[in-house]
Amino acid sequence: MNQENGDSISKVLSTSDGSQILLQTSKISAGHWRETRVILVSSSHLPMSPSMVETRPIKPGALPPAVGDRIESLVGLVAPSARRGSLAGTESGDVLVFLDKESWICSWSLDKSSTEATVKRHFFLPQDWLNCDYFRMSAISGDGTLFTPKNGDVAVNYNGLREAWFD
Known about the structure:
By secondary structure, this protein is mainly beta.
């Protein structure tokens, strides 16, 4: 990433089959994270050895604007084998779970056969849970359980992805 203009990689996620990597980049200004962006990279574009770094450019992709423009912070990926409730279905790709700019935990399928950018909203997080530095440490387990650090403790949200509202 370009450190000169303040861009930093703040989170890296890999799909369950290893075919894609998501990079969350952020600009830091006045000590706060700003301007989050998510880049999708096919692992086939990654150098296979250190000697290939100079000769093989990485070709990043973008998420559909209806998805990428909504992301405040990546949370994680849920593999197809672990889906329950509203995440269950016919999609074969991983599901990206993220916090949107309106403080909702949302999901979107990375299924390659899906041409739509259908985002599902699952639940709202109160503002006092959203200290940026702590929320960036949030994680989601394979079954969709969300772990969020808060005031020295960890809040655990079970089954939060079972219900969904569509935009």
